[in-house]
Amino acid sequence: MGKRKSARKPVAKTKIRLDSVFDCLFCNHEKTVSVKMDNESKVGHIHCSVCPASYQAPINYLSDPIDVYSDWIDACENANSGPGAQAASRSSGGGAAGRGPPSLASRPGRPAPRRVDSYGVPDELDDAEDDFE
């Protein structure tokens, strides 16, 4: 009589934990921004331990600390791309009426761009049949 074959134990799956400590957007220090989730008041708090940067965002029961951090990044980008930032970029940009920098070929003192054939060889170096007589 043989022994009954035993079943293998199931392999435990490791749950991936998301970070709750991030890099600061203002002072650029690594792993200094901590996120605290207050589920009772439904607010996520961000605070940097080096600089006075802080932020609060509304959360729900599905929110994770990375969600609050990404909301903070979006809020910073929206603040930087506001009407004041667009006016500053228009005043500092070159070209006609803020349409970007003028082309390099139209600048005085610049040589005209070199023409190349389909193989990328400049036309001055191209071997033509009339060279061989």
TrEMBL record:
Pfam families (UniProt xref): Zn_ribbon_Elf1 (PF05129)
Molecular function GO terms recorded: RNA polymerase II complex binding; zinc ion binding
Gene3D superfamilies membership: 2.20.25.190
Alphabetized UniProt keyword annotations: Metal-binding, Nucleus, Transcription, Transcription regulation, Zinc, Zinc-finger
GO biological process assignments: transcription elongation by RNA polymerase II
Stretch list, region Disordered: 80-133
Family note: Belongs to the ELOF1 family.
Name of the molecule in the record: Transcription elongation factor 1 homolog
Protein's organism: Tieghemiomyces parasiticus
